[in-house]
Every structure is written in C-alpha cells, then in structure tokens.
Known about the structure:
Layout: E1 3-8, E2 11-16, E3 20-24, E4 33-36, E5 39-44, E6 47-50, E7 59-69, E8 73-79, E9 84-90, E10 93-103
Antiparallel strand pairs: 1-2, 1-5, 3-10, 4-7, 5-6, 7-10, 8-9
Amino acid sequence: MAYAIIKTGGRQYRVAEGDTVDVDLLDVDAGKQATFGDVLMYADGDKLTHGDPLISGAKVTAEVVEQRKDKKVIAFKFKRRKGYHRTVGHRRKLTRVKIKSISVSAKKTEKKTKTE
C-alpha cells in the first residue's frame, strides 16, 4: 500500500489513499478540495522517495469532509496552602479531510561520473 508523509499546520501526518485524517484548521469549505504540497516522503512497496526536505512536484489531494472541534482540554493550576486555583481549557479547531490521491512526479538527479 502506498503512503506519503505530509506536513501541514506544523505537524506531520502519514496518509494513504482513502484515509480520513484530522488536521489543523484549513480555510477551505466542506465539500471542496484541499491540496497539500509539502510532501516529505513517499513509499510504494519497496520503492522509497524522500525529499531534501520536500519532494519537488509531489502533492496530495484531499476532500474536506467537515470543520469540527476537538475534545476539550482542561488545564488546572493550583498552589497549595495559598487558596489559588484556576481552571482554563480550550478546544482545538480541526478540519477532517479524506485523502483522494497522492501524485509524485519527482525528477531523479543522476550522479555525475568523472572520466579521466
């Protein structure tokens, strides 16, 4: 099964065709297409292609399923014997995407050989 490692929102994700992944909020409406151009690695069976740091010409196309929020994360601050306690929390905004296709058109550079 072919898969790729993409970078979006400061995080890296391992994706394959047909996968559904939650990524950080994208400015794309539900039902539209999103394209990820930051492909770090592509593997198809025994063949492995990695970038330096990115693979030039590679892209991953996905369909935006929905915009949603993550579970609530609670942070509780407390100092003993001082009467101090604070509760703060937040919910990350996420975009759920379904991976449609992975295309890699990387150009391999040939090693130059010296002839003497």
